[in-house]
């Protein structure tokens, strides 16, 4: 059986140098990118022995969506850069794994096409607060008509990140890989990731009050923004620094997670992304306050390596490692995880 490390290596080897840099690169000096993964190494496990726990139950529910495993795949756009089937393959793999996928606004495929490919899995629709009120509401209405069950609003892209790998390559993804939702648009990349700084929480909340779909505020790294999101009507919080791709020098998402959980209390659902690479990371994020984790690059490595089968292999390995760790921690369910499952590196036992 391939390991996640082997799948990652195979996926990267299958890409052109420009596509590799686009996928792997972060903002600035890439300190935050590195910090995202390093932060997991600063927590050790604190197992409890002979607890009587049987085979761990990995099932959970997030925003009313039942999941066999507390994992979602993230809204990674430009998906045909990595495999001809792009998010179609991701959707099929998620359906087979009993989890859900976030459909990206910047996908190579239209949101209606993705929803039709795997309607049981493609239930979260991602969009950006960009353009006019009418532009934004048109996207919301499309997600509503297509039968999506929740929205994911990415708030941390007022403009594209300063990604020096792309600047060195003078690289922008071709229009055909980001314009699935905007056929005929001359510059869909510029439309989505241009300067959109005029948006506020008040404006966002006023517009989203028109839909009955619950929505998640993605990109939150502080208690203050968590409170503002909830005041604007968000049903869930997405703790994320965009995989280190937007603003270098922000904390690792894992470092921000306890602050956000403390700010919103136990009842508010939290999705976590940025830095998840294996099952141990999943367990640590859940223990520190996440309800689900979201896979970005990890799923794309599988996609690039072997399409749907590659994504399915990543999901299977993450699920099996997560179950193995929970068993050894003496926890009978993912819902039993809390900070007592961990100890800071170097702390006295």
Give an overview in words:
The protein is of the alpha/beta class and 349 residues long. The protein is 42% helix and 14% strand. Helix 11 crosses helix 12. The two termini are 36 Å apart.
Q: In terms of structural class, how would the helical and strand content be classed? A: alpha/beta
- Oligomeric form: single chain
Which sequence of strands runs across the widest sheet? 4-5-6-7-8-9-10-11
Task: Classify the beta-strand content into a percent band.
Answer: 5-15%
Instruction: Give helix and strand order, one letter per element, not per position.
Output: HHHEEEEHEHEHEHHHHEHEHEHEHE
Unreliable spans: none
Could you give the count of β-strands?
A: 12
Bulk shape: globular
Report the span from N to C terminus.
36 Å
Mean of pLDDT:
94
Question: What's the alpha carbon Rg, rounded to whole Å?
Answer: 19 Å
Helix content estimate = 40-55%
Q: Could you describe the largest sheet, including whether it forms a barrel?
A: 8 strands, parallel, barrel
Helices, by number, come to 14
Keywords, separated by commas or semicolons:
349 residues; 14 helices; two-stranded antiparallel ribbon
Can you give me a brief rundown of this structure?
With about 350 residues, the chain is of the alpha/beta class. The protein has helices at about 5-15, 15-25, 30-40, 85-95, 110-115, 135-145, 165-170, 175-180, 190-195, 200-210, 225-230, 255-265, 280-285, 295-330; strands spanning about 45, 60, 65, 70-75, 100-105, 120-125, 150-155, 215-220, 235-240, 270-275, 290-295, 340-345.
């Amino acid at each position: 059986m391939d390991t996640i490390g082997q799948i990652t290596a195979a996926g990267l080897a299958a890409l052109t140098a420009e596509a590799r840099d686009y996928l792997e690169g972060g903002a600035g000096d890439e300190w935050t990118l590195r910090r995202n993964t390093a932060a997991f190494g600063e927590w050790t496990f604190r197992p409890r022995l002979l607890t009587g726990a049987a085979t761990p139950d990995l099932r959970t529910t997030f925003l009313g969506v039942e999941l066999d495993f507390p994992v979602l795949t993230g809204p990674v756009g430009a998906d045909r850069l990595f495999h001809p089937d792009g998010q179609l393959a991701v959707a099929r793999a998620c359906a087979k794994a009993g989890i859900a996928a976030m459909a990206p606004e910047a996908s190579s495929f239209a949101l209606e096409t993705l929803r039709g490919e795997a309607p049981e899995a493609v239930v979260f629709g991602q969009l950006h607060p960009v353009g006019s009120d009418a532009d934004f509401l048109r996207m919301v209405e499309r997600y509503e008509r297509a039968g999506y069950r929740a929205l994911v609003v990415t708030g941390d892209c007022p403009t594209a990140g300063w990604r020096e790998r792309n600047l060195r390559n003078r690289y922008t993804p071709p229009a055909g890989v980001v314009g699935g939702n905007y056929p005929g648009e001359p510059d869909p990349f510029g439309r989505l990731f241009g300067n959109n700084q005029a948006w506020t929480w008040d404006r966002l909340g006023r517009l989203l009050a028109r839909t009955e779909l619950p929505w998640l505020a993605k990109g939150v790294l502080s208690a203050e923004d968590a409170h503002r999101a909830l005041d604007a009507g968000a049903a869930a919080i997405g703790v994320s620094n965009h995989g280190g791709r937007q603003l270098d020098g922000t904390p690792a998402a894992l470092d921000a997670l306890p602050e956000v959980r403390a700010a919103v209390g136990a009842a508010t659902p939290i999705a976590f992304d940025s830095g998840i690479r294996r099952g141990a990371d999943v367990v640590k994020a859940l223990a520190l306050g996440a309800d689900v984790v979201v896979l970005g690059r990890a799923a794309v490595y599988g996609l690039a390596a072997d399409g749907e089968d590659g994504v399915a292999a990543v999901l299977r390995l993450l699920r099996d490692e997560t179950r193995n760790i929970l068993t050894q921690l003496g926890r009978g369910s993912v819902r039993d995880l809390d900070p007592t499952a961990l100890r800071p590196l170097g702390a006295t036992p």
